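User: Okay, second chain of the day. Same drill as before: sequence in, structure tokens out.
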Amino acid sequence: MGGEGYLNFMGNEFGHPEWIDFPREGNGWSYNHCRRRFDICDDGLLRFKYLNNWDMSMLELEEQYKYMSSDEFHISDGNEEGKIICFTKGDLLFIFNFHPTESFGYYTVGTRWLEDHIMVLNSDDYEFGGLNRLANDYNNKKIIIDEPYNCQPYSLIFYIPSRTV
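Assistant: Same drill. Structure tokens below.
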């Protein structure tokens, strides 16, 4: 939703495994903790490889669909209680479930397309450290409804596990 950019981490998850401490008088002007650690994704004992895989896949998705520079943008759902955000950007429909424990089996989302919806990126894949609760070739053709929903001409009933996009 952020225009021509995206946030791939929030805090110290990727690149700053310890803490960030910029050079200042209190640390003797040290650069010791003022660096990104790009080597941590190569350590098989750590989970940073999954964040690295996700970041590479996000870049590939943008390369293929050019959605970040698209002027077409519509928020089709923002559910504070369920911690769901759904929006279209360019030719893609994004569905986020930020809820830590709740999955939604029959969640209705507005869509502008009355055609097959193919999942092109799934944060729940094993390659991203997920639980693989959705098949990548998941086709929603049978659950697209020719009825408007949330200012979109059609609706889609979708399963979205907890903590996924």
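The longest strand covers residues 104-111.

User: Thanks, on to the next one.
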